[in-house]
Amino acid sequence: MKSKNKTHIWLITTDQMRADAIGTENNTIRTPVLDKLAAEGTVMANAYCASPVCTPSRASIFTGRYPHVHGAWNIGVSLDENEITLGDYLKQEDYRTVGVGKMHFRPQCKTDFSSEPEDVAIRDRGREKDNTYYGLDEHHISEDNVMGEYLDWLRLRDPRVAERFELDRYRSKDAEHDVWESDMPAELHQTYWMAEKSIDAIMAHDTQQPLFLWTSFVDPHHPFDPPKAYAKLYEDADIVIPRSEPDELKLRPKHLLHQSSNGYWPGGGEPHPYSEEHLGRLIRNYYGMITFIDEQIGRIKDAWQQKGIYDDVLVVFTSDHGELLGDHGLMYKGPWFYEGLTRIPMIIRGPGIAQGTRTNALMEHVDIVPTLLDAIGLERPYGVQGLSQLDVLNRQKIYVRDSAITSYDAHDRGIQAKCLRTDRYKLVVFAGEAYGELYDLLEDPDERCNLFFDHVSRELKLNLMEMLTHRLIQDQDPLPERRTNW
């Protein structure tokens, strides 16, 4: 049954953005546009990523299915072209579907480009069956390594800037450990380009047809190199430097340590080598990148308003995962489940959504697809594993799920882990390992006291293990659909 609701949909994603890196959670950060979006809608304060790395989470955002089900279980693994996506569901409802920015459904690069070069992310070969890119009619892709269409645009705009950028990404002389302030003009930045392409899609669109627009920013992913003007905004800001306990390294499982020794993860499980001064500079630049993104979101919002349809736009703002940012002595991302890495920003705004509301109801990446479809009057498709949060968003229910799951899989490294998050507790289990983690987030929000081996917490751990077991059984792939009893 087709939906009668022709609401436009705008999905905004960032890369590696913490839930607390927004003005409504941290008044040091300047995000007036996102703050206004939060006032117009509902903040899901306990939203969690499908995986603490990019590809699995992005595939879950767009399919509503878990990483072990859609198959893109880690970076470097392609999402199967036969997976049905949000774009596919919306195309069935006559939506025009457009994606701008980072998709990362395919490996960004190969060790040997002579073999299967078409699999590189930016090649964007369309599906043979419908000539779309994972259900997107139109796509303008640029990835972390600043590949793709953006570079073509930059070369046309300013060949000299493009030449310098391709040479060293405007890396400053005092750059250190992925941190510098860029001399690149803001109006030629990759983030600006993503806003430009999004604005173009809106302004060229026939408003009689519903539009789905996915604006997917690459930042604030490292390197932390905002245009100088945005770094300067925070040069006098009072930055809180994350605290790291001296014995934290000893408490980590040995199989997770030194993952950076062969480049598998930047930072790996090793403590970062940064001084407080350098870490402060890094955090300030991280905030500057977010403010720059916020400004570009504002430009795109202006285009919706100029088109006269913003009131009819259902907006979702989120990120693929967070950033450790020095928490527990760690940087970036990887096989960790700390709140800074797994809790993500989630703001939902639009027709029928409660305004100015903040809820602690648990939400997962896989809930985005069924929530959006429910909001336009469609039932959850068979095979979509997430739950619609619409009843929470319109205040009909306090919550729809009692737990959230985050997974990390690196079969090639012998690391497989699941994290179960309830409204109070967090359990982390590493397959085949005696080590695990258990935190009482009410009493220990900074996750300093691991109760996994605490005798007093034994019954609690067993109860959470049982809950996790049920989730693992329930979360198996429901496809293919059963068609008959015989």
TrEMBL record:
Organism this protein belongs to: Paenibacillus antarcticus
Cellular component GO terms held in the UniProt record: cytoplasm
PROSITE patterns the UniProt entry points to: SULFATASE_1
PANTHER family on file: IDURONATE 2-SULFATASE
Domain of life: Bacteria
Alphabetical keyword list: Hydrolase, Metal-binding
GO MF term set: metal ion binding; sulfuric ester hydrolase activity
Family: Belongs to the sulfatase family.
Pfam families: Sulfatase (PF00884)
Protein name: Sulfatase N-terminal domain-containing protein
Domain Sulfatase N-terminal: 8-377
Gene3D superfamilies in the record: Alkaline Phosphatase, subunit A
